[in-house]
Amino acid sequence: MANGTLPAYLTSTKPNPLTNRAPWYKNVAQTFAGIFLWIGFYDQLAGTSSGPGALGLGGLVPCLLGLVAAGLLCHFLFYLVPGLLGMKTGLPLYIVGTSTFGTKGGYFLPGIFMGLLQIGWYSVATYYATKLVLGGLNLSDQYDYTLFGLPGPNGQQAFSLVFVIMAVIWGYLFAFLGGLGIGMVARLSTYFPIIPIILLLVAGIAGAGHAGSYTPPTTGQALPAFLLVIQMVIGFTATAGACGADFCTASRNGKDVSMGGLVGIALAVLFAGGLALLTVAGAHGKDAAFKSYLFSDSLKVVLGNKNQIWMILFAIGSMAPASFCSFIIGNSLSTMLAKPKARVPITMAGATLGIVLAALGVASNLGGFFGLIGASFGPVIGAMCADYLLSGRRWAGPREGVSIPGYAAWFVGFVVGISNNSFIVPKDWFIPGWVPTGLLSLVAGFIVYAILAKAGLEARTVPLPTAEAETVAAK
């Protein structure tokens, strides 16, 4: 393939130069931490409104240990290689991914696929913001229900015009902010996470005083609880870990990449998830008759009358991650479709689909959604890790066409990842839902890519002058 025939998304991209880099505590760490400081991460970490999940399986200690393990796994397996590739090349995910999936294959994996998955995340952000606002306005009992979502306060599931209107208002607000560009998203990520940090600390401290009185409804299930937390966290983190390639184009060296992930992912997972689990356990310890395992419902028990204003504040705090999702939607799809001037219209179109999914309540099943995301992007990262190691811990450069090892790795890993997903198969039909198949999907992708690459099925690489001229040396 001659240079002149390379796709436009490859030839038009230039590396981020070293002069634009900064320490990890000025970019990577806070960007990742802001993703986890979001109610969409911790609201169903312990369970759902209808019953217990990980917290009910094994209690507080196995869940907290699961958060420690999950944070480290996400850092070392799901983030570190994409982050190092971004730092060493100065190039974003959809460019460095062409080494693993090919110049033509890169259109879909990881390019367009990332944008499509962000539409799903955007629907989750809009759904939860809508629920929080309605709760803060004391309208939950009348309007907090959807046609296909979790049952409302009185157990109803139906079309709610007020819920739809609120979802449209908040959804397009997020989309507008994200459409303004990375500068606006960066400002939101710098200041808005302060709100959920304060709220989580107060709620967690309030719950901790009663958490010791909580007894899980089942016993002897510590390992399933531990593994279920890992499955949930990996599902939430998979796409964000891959975005480490984009984030770490702003890193100066390997230390910045490592510290940014340890603080922004591993520590943030434990901080946000741990305080959320303390809040839920405290709510049950305080009120033995309390049934819900949602963090948002637990606030009512541990905070009492303060709950309503706090729900509004949590909704405001969710603007940063939601706007980031909308930015990725527009940036990924407009770049891969070679329509950079259409970024804002594409952002709004993707947001519209996400708003529809939120308004109908489809976005409420976070357990299945987390698992699906992990299954979808786990093998992408696994294949990239294998490619990176086989290439001598460097970026090999774009490979011609569609990569057979890359796509085979993704397909096998995806099948492994969805083997216990509630969206695809009946509950515990084949593999229990607590098995971390998101992690197994990464392992499967790694193994399949390595085998096929060793068998000589990797296509030849093609020159990319802009990258070769400005590649950053590994440090």
Quick structural summary:
By secondary structure, the chain is mainly α. The chain is built from 23 helices and two strands.
Could you please describe the fold and organization of this structure?
With 475 residues, this protein is an all-alpha fold. It has one domain: Hydantoin permease. Helix content is 67%, strand content 1%. The chain is built from 23 helices and 2 strands. The chain has a two-stranded antiparallel sheet with strand order 1-2. Helix 8 runs antiparallel to helix 20. The protein is globular, with a radius of gyration of 22 Å. The two termini are 32 Å apart. The relative contact order is 0.20.
Number of helices: 23
N-to-C span = 32 Å
Average pLDDT metric = 88
Low-confidence stretches: none
Strand residues, percent: under 5%
Query: Considering the protein shown, what is the CATH homologous superfamily?
Result: Hydantoin permease
Report the C-alpha radius of gyration, rounded.
Answer: 22 Å
- The count of strands amounts to 2
What's the quaternary structure here? single chain
Q: What is the count of structural domains?
A: 1
CATH class: Mainly Alpha
Order the strands across the largest sheet as they lie in space: 1-2
Architecture per CATH nomenclature, i.e. the level-2 architecture: Orthogonal Bundle
- What is the structural class? mainly alpha
Overall helicity: 55-70%
